[in-house]
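FAQ: What does a ligand-bound record look like?

Like this one, built around pyridoxal-5'-phosphate:
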Amino acid sequence: MRIYLDNAATTPLREEVIETMTSVMRQQYGNPSSIHADGRAMRAIVEEARKKTARLIGASIGEIFFTSGGTESNNMAIKCAVRDLGVQRIISSPLEHHCVLHSLEAVEHQGVVIELLRVDERGRIDYEQLEELLQNGLGTKTLVSLMYANNEFGTLNDLERISKLCENYGALFHSDTVQTMGHFPINVSKLKIHFLSCGAHKFHGPKGAGFIYINNEAQLKPFIDGGGQERNMRGGTENVYGIAGLARALELAYGQMEEYRQHIEDLRSYFMEQLLENVEDIRFNGDYDGHYLYTVLSVSFPASPKSELLLLHLDIAGISASGGSACSSGAEAGSHVLKAINADPARKSIRFSFSHLNTKDEIDVVVEKLKAVVGVRKMEAVA
Ligand SMILES: Cc1ncc(COP(=O)(O)O)c(C=O)c1O
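The answer part, i.e. the structure of the complex:
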């Protein structure tokens, strides 16, 4: 049995989600746009999923639009805000996922001014600089795009504080909530936010399914032109199985969020303790003991020819983890976010990310392997 510690890249599907999806696959095949009974049955599944999703995040039904996942939702928020809402300036950070950063580059070519906030060595943004920029740019239509949790080392942004600043200075607010959805509660009826994004595969749902929340106050035009699906925002016959699976996975995640959180927090602390006690010269990246996403632990190992090949050694030993962001895995091009927080380039960082399915026994196996490859910590001489 392999040990899977790459849950920030993707998570295994839950059995209940597989059941929901396969039962739709077996029993229904109509096109949700068809007006006959077969179509109406499929439409009902999509609308039931929308209702469930909206309820869980405190949105109204008309504010949820199903997409292919986080990447599409982030592209849509940024590009449509520029095209349809007259956004002239976007404030973001160098720690965003590539789907946000590359969308920013795309709109920069259209003349939008992009300002990236300073970040400190733990990956925390500079809130004072954010306020200064908002204040100085009053009168310039501004979108603030800041993720909830960083996907490589888990540092959390304070969405409430950002939301208040945006409200005070009349800016739109988009947050990439792909890593936190299903792991932290979010309630858009209490938190003023215009756009947020979700990919179901980060909380034991299917790949290729997600949604974007668009606040009723932000009226966008279609992102994909076509047959008028998703209330004309996204043409194309709906991924009904994926949508049904997404809603089921989100419902389960919310239902057991506290229980899972406790289990994962315990595993993460145990892993940290064991690493510090047993393995040579361990450090952690990000705000690992401050405001952090509990499913992620980014570990920095000392430079050595062996640690260069650490991921490979782990893989051969049956352990899946990731070097930085898995979305660009294979290409060991160096992580843009570790660079942005000035992490020592000579050291090797590995992201371990957990789910409720992981166990302490698995952590013990991983620590043993790391001791063998990186080296056992030398105990201080006892006086
Ligand atoms: C922070 C963040 N945003 C966006 C994405 C992309 O989401 P998706 O895989 O659903 O397109 C990821 C995936 O790793 C992510 O971690």
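Follow-up question: can I read anything off the structure? Yes, for example: Residues 3-10+256-374 form a domain with the Aspartate Aminotransferase, domain 1 fold (CATH 3.90.1150.10).
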